[in-house]
Amino acid sequence: MEKLKVILASQSPRRKELLKYLFDDFDIITSNIDEKCDASYPLDKRPELFAVMKGKNISEKYQDSLVISADTMVLVDDIALGKPNSKEEAFAMISLLSGRTHKVITGVYIAYKGKSISFSSETLVEFYKLSNEEIFQYISTDECVDKAGAYAIQGKAATFVKSINGDYFNVVGLPIGAINNVLKFFIK
């Protein structure tokens, strides 16, 4: 049997580490699509839309490879929290999450030999009430850089988490259990 060629269409180091749970060997090829959509497009559907856009861009070029792409969003009060552009923005984001529950939504797209499937995974995360000092200390670690919602649950921000309802790995950036389940039926 021919060896399955796998491509992760993401430059996220966290997704790379998580995909190693499923595949020993894969390539990383990133898509440089413009992550924009009509303003009326529902916020909670955008991660899946962007995952599809990224994945299709790569799968059209590598049709004989299994392509997996993903996009993650933190959502609170119908406000999408992307990656912060400054420490001030990171402080505002974490302050907004402090003492509250928010959603982490990861959209996933999988394509192989002309077939494709997409889905979203949602996890609810509740933070303890945080002091300004705790937030400043966290931001000073630079762990908030390049993270949706300005935090890494797998890092020092783990101490902020009061409860989690759903897939932990979804919050890290790739719902690996759901992907594995889909792959069992998708690739035969």
Key terms:
30% helix; 188 residues; alpha/beta; 7-stranded mixed beta sheet; single chain; 7 strands; elongated
Produce a short descriptive summary.
By secondary structure, this protein is an alpha/beta fold. The protein is built from six helices and seven strands.
List the helices and strands and how they pair.
Layout: E1 6-8, H1 13-19, E2 27-28, H2 46-59, E3 66-76, E4 79-81, H3 87-97, E5 101-112, E6 115-127, H4 132-140, E7 161-165, H5 168-172, H6 176-186
Parallel strand pairs: 1-2, 1-3
Antiparallel strand pairs: 3-4, 3-5, 5-6, 6-7
Helix pairs in contact: 3-4
Overview of the molecule:
The chain is of the alpha/beta class. The longest helix has 14 residues.
Provide the low-confidence segments as ranges.
Answer: none
Strand content: 25-35%
Counting H and I runs of at least 4 residues, what is the number of helices? Answer: 6
Instruction: Provide the succession of SSEs.
Output: EHEHEEHEEHEHH
Please give the radius of gyration in angstroms.
17 Å
Oligomer: single chain
Percent of residues in helices comes to 25-40%
Number of strands: 7
Structural class of the secondary structure composition? alpha/beta
Mean pLDDT: 93
Major beta sheet, specifics? Answer: 7 strands, mixed
Using the alpha-carbon principal axes, give the shape.
elongated
Separation of termini?
12 Å
